């Protein structure tokens, strides 16, 4: 059986300097880094990509961070320098977009974000305060009216089917005036 | 804070006309790409319809 897994501690011995970002960066100067990024964006293919991304509502911030990430991955510049030059790079893209009439969104505006308030947090966490509970208790219970009329409707006073005393007495056979039951005549003498 | 958040913050600062303080101290205030430079760049683009010369760097990828 062949075991292909690394032995414990192999990560401590591995030579990771082969990654570009583990080597000293090519560019360490601010102005040089901005020039490098501008020249990259100015390349025809890269410019087409950048301004096409802006046309499909990708924010300038996203475009810039993507471009800088590529440069970092290639070992061109360190991460902190990339963050420092993100402002000038974004401004360059903005100026080009403005002068060429491209629509763009910087992506730095936070006005569309939902503002977090204590009330919003309480609602999100399902917390109901005592005052709100009292208000809820004070709310009168709405009683729905009984349906009247129709086949399934409850009977009204007018519709009461109570028999009178005389009718009840006659139904119970207690009425003296009641007619004696008439024997049914046998028709044709048949029982 | 993610990389994207840091980039967003940096862009916002630059757009507000602020430059990194320590960077300016280290470079002795001699930084080419300042907010003022890009204001001039924009003006030049609008007037001439052509970008001013930008120092080219060789891409050895």
Describe the structure.
The complex is a heterodimer of chains A (about 190) and B (about 60). Chain A is mostly helical. Helix content of chain A is about 45%, strand content about 0%. Chain A has helices at about 10-15, 30-40, 45-55, 60-75, 80-100, 120-125, 130-140, 165-170. In chain A, helix 2 (about 30-40) crosses helix 5 and helix 4 (about 60-75) crosses helix 5. The model of chain A has no long low-confidence stretch (mean pLDDT about 80). Chain B is mainly alpha-helical. Helices cover about 55% and strands about 0% of the residues of chain B. The longest helix of chain B has 14 residues, at about 35-50. The interface of A and B includes residues 34 and 86 of A.
Summary tags:
heterodimer, A: 191 residues, mainly alpha, B: 61 residues, 3 helices, flat
Strand content of chain B: under 5%
Question: What summary fits the major beta sheet of chain A?
Answer: none
Number of extended strands of chain B? 0
Average pLDDT of chain B, to the nearest integer?
Answer: 79
Distance between the termini of chain A: 105 Å
Total helices of chain A: the number is 8
The helix-and-strand class of chain A reads mainly alpha
Order of helices and strands of chain B: HHH
Q: What overall geometry of chain A do the principal axes of the alpha carbons give?
A: elongated
Structural class of chain B comes to: mainly alpha
Count of the domains of chain B: 1
Q: What is the tally of helical segments of chain B?
A: 3
Mind describing the biggest β-sheet of chain B?
none
Share of residues in helices of chain B? 55-70%
Determine the strand fraction of chain A and express it as a percent band.
under 5%
In oligomeric terms, what are we looking at?
heterodimer
Helical residue percent of chain A? Answer: 40-55%
Q: What Rg of chain B is obtained from the alpha carbons, in whole angstroms? A: 15 Å
Averaged pLDDT of chain A: 80
| Unreliable residue runs of chain A | none
Distance between the termini of chain B: 30 Å
């Amino acid at each position: 059986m062949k075991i292909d897994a690394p032995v414990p501690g192999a990560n401590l011995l591995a030579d990771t300097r082969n990654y570009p970002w583990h080597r000293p960066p090519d560019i360490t100067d601010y102005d040089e880094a901005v020039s490098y990024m501008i020249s990259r964006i100015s390349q025809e293919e890269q410019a087409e990509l950048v301004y096409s991304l802006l046309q499909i509502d990708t924010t300038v911030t996203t475009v810039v961070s993507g471009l800088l990430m590529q440069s970092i991955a290639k070992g061109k510049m360190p991460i902190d320098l990339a963050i420092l030059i993100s402002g000038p790079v974004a401004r360059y893209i903005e100026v080009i977009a403005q002068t060429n009439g491209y629509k763009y969104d910087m992506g730095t505006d936070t006005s569309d974000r939902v503002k977090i308030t204590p009330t919003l947090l309480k609602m999100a966490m399902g917390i109901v305060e005592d005052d709100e509970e009292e208000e809820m208790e004070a709310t009168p219970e709405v009683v729905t009216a009984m349906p009247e009329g129709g086949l399934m409707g409850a009977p009204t006073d007018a519709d009461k089917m109570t028999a009178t005393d005389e009718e009840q007495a006659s139904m119970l056979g207690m009425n003296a005036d009641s007619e004696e039951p008439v024997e049914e005549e046998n028709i044709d003498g048949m029982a | 804070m993610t990389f994207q958040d840091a980039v967003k913050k940096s862009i916002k600062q630059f757009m507000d006309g602020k430059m990194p303080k320590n960077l300016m101290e280290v470079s002795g205030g001699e930084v080419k790409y300042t907010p003022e430079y890009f204001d001039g760049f924009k003006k030049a683009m609008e007037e001439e319809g052509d970008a001013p010369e930008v120092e080219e760097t060789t891409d050895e990828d």
